[in-house]
């Protein structure tokens, strides 16, 4: 990977080929504070809690993280189905708003175009997203099984929702929310801002990938490694193409198949 090249006017060209962004000392300071704030109200804090969960499991549970159970999607279970659904949808909105915040901040400069979030080449984005899902989904599932076998992952209770009419539609909505939140914040927003801070391409990809892995540590070390690898692939794709939409599509498909598939596989197999 090559590092960013500054022009003689002190501007940094974006990978997506749009208007160069000024990177004066004041703007760099503001960018750093903005990044801290966005991550602080979203996946940055998720990473902190995941790390604390892992440390607590290793220090207080006999056998460590392998003797714990990680739940990915859960919700209330009362007799008031409509209220449970409202609570679940509120949780989904809580995940959507940080992504919206990132988009709004990017839209204040030419960075929105550089982030690869503007609609274009819809069929191509969809096709690439499906391809990324196929290339990552099967190896990812294999890694979960292997990690669990070697005791470096928690037992996964992927879905803990009552068997009600809205369960599958809600899981699809939750998969879409995960795709938006993670790919907008961790790839489109964070990598765009790091480029503006003159970070080298390799460093930008590494920071994005490590962040992605860190907020999955509550699932174990295998989940961390798997998500770092996924993050590196996604980051390299974004750095090369400047397109984030295929990553959102791939992430949605990965979570949708994992969530819905778990409902039907978990009662029938013993390796999940």
Question: What would you note in describing this structure?
Answer:
With 272 residues, the chain is mainly alpha-helical. The chain has one domain (65-265). The chain contains nine helices and four strands. It has a two-stranded antiparallel ribbon with strand order 1-2. Helix 2 (43-60) packs across helix 7 and helix 7 (201-214) packs antiparallel against helix 8. The protein is globular, with a radius of gyration of 19 Å.
Summarize this structure as a short list of keywords or feature phrases.
4 strands, disordered N terminus, 272 residues, two-stranded antiparallel ribbon, globular, mainly alpha, single chain, 9 helices, two-stranded parallel ribbon
Helix/strand layout:
Blueprint: E1 11-12, E2 21-22, H1 25-40, H2 43-60, E3 69-74, H3 81-107, H4 111-114, H5 122-149, E4 155-160, H6 167-196, H7 201-214, H8 221-241, H9 245-265
Parallel strand pairs: 3-4
Antiparallel strand pairs: 1-2
Helix pairs in contact: 1-6, 2-7, 3-6, 5-8, 5-9, 6-7, 6-9, 7-8
